[in-house]
Amino acid sequence: MNTQRHLMVEQCHLAMAHLRVGGRQSDVARELGVSQSVISRLASRHRTTGRVHDRPRSGPPRVTDCNDDQYLRTYALRHRYATSTQLQAHLRDVRGTRVSRQTIRNRLHRFI
């Protein structure tokens, strides 16, 4: 079974609602398609902080916003054989966003 490692905020709230009414962690995990350890960590984080989302992390700000990512994804799907260099140039010309080729690859890897 292919399971994901992270949950969206809505899924976290749904999982906590199931746990509050007496659902088992393994049942909630199976329903959401994640491993039981993800639900266990979520419950533990909720007990200690009272919240379901992760705490803010340090690091550099993202170069692209969600609109840039969506545009890049759509353009890449329409032009299947475009290289990362071509995608980089097109994103810079159309959206005015300057990113590295590696950033292009990283963003596209998330969609696959």
Uncertain regions spanning at least 5 consecutive residues: none
The average pLDDT is: 89
Number of domains: 2
H/E topology pattern: HHHHHH
How far from one another are the termini? 17 Å
Largest sheet: none
- Using only CA atoms, what is the Rg? 19 Å
- Tell me the structural class: mainly alpha
Question: DSSP helix count?
Answer: 6
The proportion of residues forming helix, as a percent range, comes to 55-70%
User: Which strand-content bin applies to the residues?
Assistant: under 5%
Question: Overall 3D geometry?
Answer: elongated
**Total strand segments:** 0
Region (Disordered): 43-67
Protein name: Transposase Tc1-like domain-containing protein
InterPro entries: Homeodomain-like_sf
Descriptive notes:
- By secondary structure, the protein is mainly α.
- It folds into 2 domains: 9-49; 66-111.
- It contains 6 helices and no strands.
- The chain has helices at residues 9-20, 25-32, 36-49, 66-78, 84-95, 101-111.
- Helix 1 (9-20) crosses helix 3 (36-49).
- It is elongated and about 55 Å long.
- The model has no long low-confidence stretch (mean pLDDT 89).
Short structural description:
By secondary structure, the chain is mainly α. The protein contains six helices and no strands.
Layout: helices, strands, pairs:
Layout: H1 9-20, H2 25-32, H3 36-49, H4 66-78, H5 84-95, H6 101-111
What descriptive keywords fit this protein?
mainly alpha, 2 domains, single chain, 112 residues
